[in-house]
């Protein structure tokens, strides 16, 4: 007999007036933990539903960030729909929203007003650039925040800065929202009072840029795009093998450098070469060093190199395509049910708990407005008995 898994968020009601990626990812975390999550959508739906149709007709981001929720269509500018949302929020534990700055306040759902009605409510506002300042009203799509924050400037290849290939600012903001809400829930367990949680995509990206920023401000030189290389470590990067693969290596200290020279290259004298005898000299002479590494790799197969690198305890990894990543032996997947009843497999949640199944079912992706009638009827009955 299989024990019922513990659901630490069971009993919590999370309401999310959400669109795109950041807020949906945050609320999805609570759905995975057993909370009841009501997703508020316009009649036209969260536009992320239309991003693509890659997952058996369902948008990939939408399937990832919205399973396990109920979908309620509302027009918060409509008096009756606004009243319904107030009734729901009066009983909610958490309210998440990522509309444009000021939009929810103008509709009567600002943080202070809501907490006067429900002092235990935790309100999480996710914005692009924050709720004040010159950039307050700027459109803040993930790519643009990557550009504004300097993330693009430290990525890509030399002379060719590049966007990070997934929506990292949206994803990171969603993660920060979860951290902020969990902290607020813990504070409420002590004080009995809810609180406001505010974060932005820009602040999320800025936090990640702390080290490059410190280099620019205090050392006078920001890291430049280096492709697969590292600005201050060598040898570090991807090198093509005889059978056309690319293996990346990372040598981070003198012990590893000596081991690479002797155990892999069979040339222990390289470790004492004046051009390469310490980290700074290896970086200064990177071109000559990389030529040696590249020549050695080009004459051997991936399998032969992996055996040598493993035996010498040198850190390495394959530069995989997404197709090869999809077959990776360490990749864990978990099933999700799409709105039409079909099953797909997403990447399994990265955090595992001993009280959860090893491979949890992620729940079902809701159809647009699928739960509208039931939720309206439920809260109408609550209103009648209040």
From TrEMBL:
Record has GTP-binding as a keyword: no
Keywords of the record: Transferase
A Pfam family recorded for this sequence: CoA_transf_3
The name this protein goes by in its record: Crotonobetainyl-CoA:carnitine CoA-transferase CaiB-like acyl-CoA transferase
Membrane spanning stretches: none
Entry-linked InterPro entries: CoA-transferase_III_domain, CoA-Trfase_fam_III, CoA-Trfase_III_dom3_sf, CoA-Trfase_III_dom_1_sf
Gene3D superfamilies: Crotonobetainyl-coa:carnitine coa-transferase, domain 1, formyl-coa transferase, domain 3
């Amino acid at each position: 007999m299989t024990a019922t898994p513990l659901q630490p968020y069971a009993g919590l009601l999370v309401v999310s007036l959400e669109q795109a990626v950041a807020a949906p990812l945050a609320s999805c975390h609570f759905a995975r933990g057993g909370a009841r999550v009501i997703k508020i959508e316009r009649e036209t739906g969260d536009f992320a539903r239309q991003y693509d149709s890659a997952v058996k007709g369902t948008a990939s981001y939408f399937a990832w960030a919205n399973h396990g929720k109920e979908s309620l269509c509302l027009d918060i500018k409509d008096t009756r729909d606004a009243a319904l949302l107030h009734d729901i929020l009066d009983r909610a534990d958490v309210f998440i929203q990522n509309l444009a700055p000021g939009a929810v306040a103008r509709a009567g759902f600002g943080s202070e007003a809501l907490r006067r009605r429900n002092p235990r409510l935790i309100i999480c506002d996710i914005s692009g650039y924050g709720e004040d300042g010159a950039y307050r009203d700027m459109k803040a799509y993930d790519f643009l925040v990557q550009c504004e924050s300097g993330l693009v400037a430290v990525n890509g290849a030399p002379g060719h800065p590049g966007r990070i290939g997934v929506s990292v600012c949206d994803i990171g903001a969603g993660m920060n929202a979860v951290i902020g809400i969990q902290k607020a829930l813990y504070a409420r367990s002590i004080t009995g009072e809810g609180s406001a949680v505010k974060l932005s995509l820009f602040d999320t990206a800025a936090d990640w840029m702390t080290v490059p920023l410190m280099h620019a401000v205090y050392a006078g030189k920001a890291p430049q795009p280096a492709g697969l290389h590292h600005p201050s470590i060598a040898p570090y990067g991807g090198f093509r093998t005889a059978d056309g693969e690319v293996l990346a290596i990372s040598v981070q200290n003198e012990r590893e450098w000596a081991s690479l020279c002797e155990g892999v290259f069979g040339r222990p004298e390289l470790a004492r070469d004046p051009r390469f005898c310490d980290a700074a000299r290896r970086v200064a002479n990177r071109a000559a060093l990389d030529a040696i590494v590249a020549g050695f790799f080009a004459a051997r197969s991936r399998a032969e190199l992996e055996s040598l690198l493993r035996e010498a305890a040198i850190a390495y990894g394959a530069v995989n395509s997404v197709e090869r990543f999809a077959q990776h032996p360490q990749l864990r997947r978990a099933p999700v049910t799409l709105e039409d009843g079909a099953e797909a497999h997403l990447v399994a949640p990265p955090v595992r708990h001993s009280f959860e199944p090893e491979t949890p079912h992620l729940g079902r992706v809701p159809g647009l407005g699928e739960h509208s009638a039931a939720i309206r009827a439920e809260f109408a009955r609550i209103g009648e008995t209040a």
